[in-house]
Write a structure and sequence with these properties.
- A 6-stranded mixed β-sheet has the order 7-8-9-3-10-11, with helices on both faces. Strands 2-1-4-5-6 form a 5-stranded antiparallel β-sheet, with helices on one face. It has a 5-stranded antiparallel β-sheet with strand order 14-13-12-15-21, with no helix packed on it.
- It is an alpha+beta fold.
- It starts with 23 loop residues before the first strand and ends with a strand.
- A hairpin with a 2-residue loop joins strand 4 and strand 5.
- It has 8 helices and 21 strands.
- It has 2 domains: 239 residues, P-loop containing nucleotide triphosphate hydrolases (Rossmann fold, 3-Layer(aba) Sandwich), CATH 3.40.50.300; 103 residues, Nucleic acid-binding proteins (OB fold (Dihydrolipoamide Acetyltransferase, E2P)), CATH 2.40.50.
- The chain is 22% helix and 35% strand.
- Bound molecules: adenosine-5'-triphosphate.
- The site of adenosine-5'-triphosphate has 11 residues, from helix 1.
- It holds the Pfam family ABC_tran.
- GO terms for molecular function: ABC-type ferric iron transporter activity; ATP binding; ATP hydrolysis activity.
- Keywords: ATP-binding, Cell membrane, Ion transport, Iron, Iron transport, Membrane, Nucleotide-binding, Transport.
- Belongs to the ABC transporter superfamily.
């Protein structure tokens, strides 16, 4: 089955069923599994209709948060509220089907022995047959699969299976949706279209949504806010631009781009580096810091001075972009730079670097 996918494969925009978006709130949630704390004092509040992307290393607890919200996982401390109602808390555990949360799993978890239509109506049994069929068909139409309703999931391409899983999760018009790595099984060609159209569907439904992803770029594209999770705790929550420009610590910064790191000490409100001075007004004199330089925007590269002299050690072309490694006297490792392609920049050539201190991050060492 072909996996080529275009926007035309999807149904008309603006036709997804609208939900009554709900507020979702985790307060100081603890979960211990197999004797190990998996969520620790985890708090997060989503306003109705908000899309939050959960980003974090493998094993940081992302899927556990979805399971907790959906009521598949019990908690050991804290509370979970939907609107003003506690659904998980001391002595309280509302059943999954009482929470009004739609789930979409990484592997889509489609029922192989049911047709597409039966897959979607499965979650609509409470509605009565006529309403269930109407709502299921509307969801299938929105994702462009209405003409395949009698087919079986194994006859669909990967992109179509994703669309079916999305239709199934939105068909009951849940006030809250949880998507666990919804695009991870799609290849790069497909991902952009599917991602954009899924986002359009989410906006149409108005559902409050948590999307788990490993991919920082995806989180920045999809999330109204990004929640960065580390060892079961919330490390930072912010908009994409805040979290990118003002990461809470070095580890958070490392999540969003590769970094060249320079160890130094603050003197008179600044840090002297082999690339020039960097202001560090928020750090006391004598503080040991890491200066983190991103490959994009931090350094201007010219083939003539002025600037700090360097030499191009390696270069890769990536369609209009140069990925360079430049050695600079005083730096242990070559610095990584991504910039617009320049034919004059060849391996072995001398270059001159100018630091843009406002793009450079400075973090106190632990
Ligand atoms: N039933 C269980 N018993 C014991 N440990 C578990 C259980 N389920 C999950 N864990 C552990 O809890 C931690 C968090 O798991 P979780 O699946 O929430 O992480 P994640 O951030 O979603 O990871 P990934 O990105 O790899 O999917 C992991 O260390 C995992 O091994």
């Amino acid at each position: 089955m072909s996996d080529s996918e275009t926007l035309e494969d999807w149904g008309p925009r603006g036709t997804a069923g609208v939900a009554f978006a709900a507020a979702l709130r985790f307060d100081a949630v603890d979960v211990t599994l197999g004797g190990r704390p998996v969520l620790r004092n985890f708090s997060l509040a989503l306003v109705p209709g908000e899309i939050v992307c959960l980003l974090g290393e493998s094993g940081s607890g992302k899927s556990t948060i979805l399971r907790v919200a959906a009521g598949i996982q019990r908690i050991d401390g804290g509370t979970v509220k939907i609107n003003d109602q506690i659904v998980s808390g001391p002595g309280i555990h509302a059943k999954p089907d009482r929470r009004g949360i739609g789930l979409m799993f990484q592997d889509f978890a489609l029922f192989p022995h049911l047709t597409l239509l039966q897959n979607v109506t499965f979650g609509l049994r409470k509605l009565g047959r006529t309403a269930a069929l109407a709502q299921a068909r509307q969801a299938l139409k929105r994702v462009g699969l209405d003409d395949r309703e009698a087919d079986y999931p194994h006859r669909l391409s990967g992109g179509q299976q994703q669309r079916l899983a999305l239709a199934r999760s939105i068909a009951p018009r849940p006030g809250i949706l949880m998507l666990d790595e919804p695009f991870s099984s799609l290849d790069a060609r497909l991902r952009e279209t599917v991602r954009n159209e899924t986002l359009a569907v989410l906006h149409e439904t108005h559902a409050t949504t948590i999307i788990v992803t490993h991919d920082p770029e995806e989180a920045m594209l999809l999330g109204d806010r990004i929640a960065l999770l580390r060892h079961g705790r919330l490390a930072q929550i912010d908009t994409a631009s805040e979290i990118y420009n003002r990461p809470v610590d070095l580890n958070a910064a490392r999540f969003f781009s590769p970094l060249s790191e320079i160890e130094a000490r603050v003197q008179a409100g600044r840090v002297e580096t082999p690339l020039g001075p960097v202001p560090a007004p928020r750090h006391a004199d004598g503080t040991a810091v890491t200066v983190a330089i991103r490959p994009i925007g931090s350094l201007d590269v010219a083939t003539e001075g002025p600037g700090i002299p360097g030499r191009v050690l390696a270069k890769r072309d990536a369609i209009g972009i140069d990925l360079c490694e430049v050695s600079v006297a005083g730096l242990e490792r070559p610095i990584q730079i991504r910039r617009r392609a320049d034919r004059n920049l060849v391996v072995g050539s001398d270059v001159f670097l100018t630091l843009n201190p406002e793009h450079v991050l400075v973090f106190a060492k632990d």
